[in-house]
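Please discuss these two lines.
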Amino acid sequence: MKKLISAFFDKRFLKFCAVGVVNTLVGTAVMYGLYNLAHCGYWFSSAMNYVVGSVVSYFLNKYFTFNVKKRSWREIARFTANILFCYLIAYGVAKPLARMVFSALSESARDNLAMLAGMVFFVPLNYLGQRFFAFRGGEKEEK
């Protein structure tokens, strides 16, 4: 069991969390700014969060978190597929869940809560996808 836990929670996990803080601050500002200030829709606002955050995430996680030195279009395709998959699952679950749980609230309040829930669902899915799919084969980091 200890070996299984250490396979997921190591220095790369801590670095991923640090990169995630940066992505979260930037992406959340974009998402809520577009939704609440620019009055864009739920899907566009939440998607722009991940377009902006993913560019930052790609470079920081590639070089800082997972120490991947090679350049590859396949890696970019895997990263993009991972982000798209995690986004659709996380936000696709969050929207109907928020609609059901917070049915007494306004649509705007439900959408804001759904976007928050989508972020929470996205993070663990994205970590697993980046570590074991998008950047698999990166240099092993010493413990």
The mean pLDDT is 88. Residues 11-134 form one domain.
